[in-house]
Amino acid sequence: FVASESVWLSKRVQDGDPRAADASCLYAAPVAVAAFNGDTVDAASASSSDIYGFVGPKGFNATGASTDTNYARICTICYISDSASSLTPPPYSGPSNFSETSVSIRARESPGPTYYPGLPRLDYKLYSPPNFSLSTDCIVLSSKSDHLSASANALLSLISTQASIPPKPLIHMKGTRGRKVDFDIKLNLMGLLVPDDTSKRMQYIRCVSEGEMAYRGGVKPDVIPEVGERELEEWCRRFVEDPAQVKSFALDRVVANLDTMWIEGQLRALLAATQYKGVLHVSFPVTHAKVVVQNQPKANKFMTSMKKLFSGKHKYEVVQSIWPFATAKSGDEGRRCAVQSEEVWWREWRDPIRYAVSQKRQNGAYVTNEDKLEALMEGKGQDSIDWGGVDAIDMPDEAELEG
């Protein structure tokens, strides 16, 4: 119960104990569970199977209060035992004291975001706000909450909050021969956008610039209207005041300055080195990439559909949350990466990717840190890959050929 903690305990030990004059020593005994409510504990009668806690000889309770007037400050409790001669430490039995326990409880109950070791330091609750739904492909988060279409301040707050968390960029690799899928894997690149030090993060909000084609509240892209200063606030106000029967406001999360062409080239070279004869498909999808607010039409569904057919939906796609992989494009002078360069990332993940491919994983299985550990600790990803011969290719049967 107590380890290395200052407490008040009696200096008067049992008669004849040679440590009676030594305030740095402690004769301790187990404390029964009932003692935790502040009741007096009888050290002599406590059993060794009871929960351990701090206690001196007879006359002490579990809060450290003394019924004796002679007491001294004991600065460190090294172990707790039920006999003066025992040198065997007791089994671990929880936090060191009540104050430390209460601090940990308050930390768990604090309203701030929860951070998870090994994951980017983000408030993940923001990815699932109330009254929103995520599309099946995990790309679009949408809501038809009335207050977001009726209050410019509510919409502004939502967009600003959602702009503070990044999209989830992926690498998707699939190898096929005919109809046979040899492997189908994914890698998560979100960690490359989010340095642990929040002061070094590069994200920013961007509104459409002058002369840029975009959906500015109409049914098709245009370069007007312009809104001048305080752009985001003004666009939110225009959306709320727009009398259109059907309208939507969107935030796009964008990954910038990631050299996907270089990464794809490395992946293709890696597969070619394994003597793979199939077709390699490489793509860079981005999930959690869009937040959309739509109004809730007051008319019935049939009338709404008819009005939408003839008048169209008023779209506001004027705001982006930019998440740079680096300050500039690959090759530009002075380029600085948010976390690490493409080359450093590739050196870390080349062998884990090769290992995942060699296992012929399917259904978009993720290559994870566990694969990286096995590559580093066990040399996985170094062996040759047996792709099989022509028989491994799933060819169409004769009936299909005749058809």
Automatic annotation (TrEMBL):
This is Uncharacterized protein.
